[in-house]
């Protein structure tokens, strides 16, 4: 079998199949055994787990996942990688490769079919051009999830893990805090990939909450409020939110809610914690 977690093994496979990298698919393949082991260790995979891998590439991390998981489902958009994956994963009978765009996959149906609806673990070296839609899509769809362990751009990991007062704080930070407990477990140099990305990367491990740390009447509304507040970052919360055309949410309602919370009318959304956004959303929903 081709062992891929190193430069020579990867280059051999790329050469054998005369593989052409597709930049628009965010293809940067991992070639560092130490980082690969760190990712699968952080994901704490056991022989009981169903793992969903997004973007297996030539199957490098997939091999590590197959060794540890009960079953791996790998969703890859690039059709030219499918024959390569058949080759590099030929020794494993616990992997299914699906040639599809992950944003169009019904992950709940996969969890039902392969895991009897029990929570699954997501592990991936994500394509950077769609990191946010993938992570937000996983959270918002309420697919049964235990954890998400992913390689992302370092700058995105910083946005995922920060709080009020930082320039990186925004809708993504709040979504990650609402849905999970996040921890950056490694910073990864461009040298760990072929081809090298232009940026540094981080591995972030998110343990999905069984119950969110705040209680809201309407979760979708909470995130409408959050997005509206950050879309208009330089405006006050009153101006930003009232300009977002949310039904029934005018300046007077927002001022009234802020008053009840003991907040100034000139407060900005970027100073609000998750708890404060939840309180505001609940007031506005009444
Ligand atoms: N897991 C491999 C590794 O670590 O070496 C490859 C990671 S590479 C950063 C991202 C992978 O995601 C590529 O194989 C790319 O073709 C695939 N990909 C990109 N967009 C995708 C999408 N929308 N759905 C599924 N896979 C996608």
Q: How would you sum up this structure in a few lines?
A:
It is built from 12 helices and 9 strands. The chain is of the alpha/beta class and 286 residues long.
How much strand content do the residues show? Answer: 15-25%
Measured between the Cα atoms of the first and last residue, the distance is: 61 Å
Q: What CATH first level of the largest domain would be assigned?
A: Alpha Beta
Please give the count of helices: 12
Q: Which stretches of 5+ consecutive residues score pLDDT under 50?
A: none
**Helix fraction?**
25-40%
Estimated structural class? alpha/beta
Q: Characterize the main sheet.
A: 7 strands, mixed
- Form type: elongated
CATH topology of the largest domain: Rossmann fold
Q: What's the average pLDDT? A: 94
Counted beta strands: 9
Question: Over all CA atoms, what is the radius of gyration?
Answer: 21 Å
What is the chain-wise order of helices and strands? HEHEHEHEHEHEHHEEEHHHH
Q: What hetero molecules are in the model?
A: S-adenosylmethionine
Tell me the CATH superfamily of the largest domain.
Vaccinia Virus protein VP39
């Amino acid at each position: 079998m081709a062992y891929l977690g190193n430069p020579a093994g990867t280059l051999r496979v790329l050469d054998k199949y005369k593989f052409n990298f597709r930049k628009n698919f965010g293809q940067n393949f991992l070639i560092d055994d130490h980082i690969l082991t760190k990712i699968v260790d952080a994901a704490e995979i056991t022989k009981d787990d169903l793992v969903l891998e997004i973007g297996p590439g030539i199957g490098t991390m997939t091999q590590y996942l197959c060794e540890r998981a009960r079953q791996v489902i790998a969703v890859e958009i690039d059709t030219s990688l499918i024959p390569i994956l058949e080759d590099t994963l030929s020794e494993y009978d616990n992997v299914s490769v699906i040639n599809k765009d992950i944003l169009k996959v019904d992950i709940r149906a996969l969890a039902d079919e392969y895991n009897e609806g029990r929570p699954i673990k997501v592990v991936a070296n994500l394509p950077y051009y769609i990191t946010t839609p993938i992570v937000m899509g996983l959270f918002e769809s309420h697919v049964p999830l235990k954890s998400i362990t992913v390689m992302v751009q370092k700058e995105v990991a910083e946005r995922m893990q920060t709080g009020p007062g930082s320039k990186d704080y925004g809708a993504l930070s709040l979504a990650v805090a609402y849905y999970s407990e996040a921890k950056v477990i490694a910073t990864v140099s461009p040298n760990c990939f072929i081809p090298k990305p232009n940026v540094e990367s981080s591995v972030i491990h998110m343990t999905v909450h069984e119950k969110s740390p705040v209680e809201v009447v309407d979760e979708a509304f909470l995130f409408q409020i959050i997005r509206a507040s950050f879309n208009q970052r330089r405006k006050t919360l009153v101006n930003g939110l009232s300009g977002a055309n949310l039904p029934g949410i005018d300046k007077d309602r927002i001022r009234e809610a802020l008053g009840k919370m003991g907040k100034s009318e000139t407060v900005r959304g970027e100073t609000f914690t998750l708890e404060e956004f939840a309180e505001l959303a609940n007031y506005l929903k009444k």
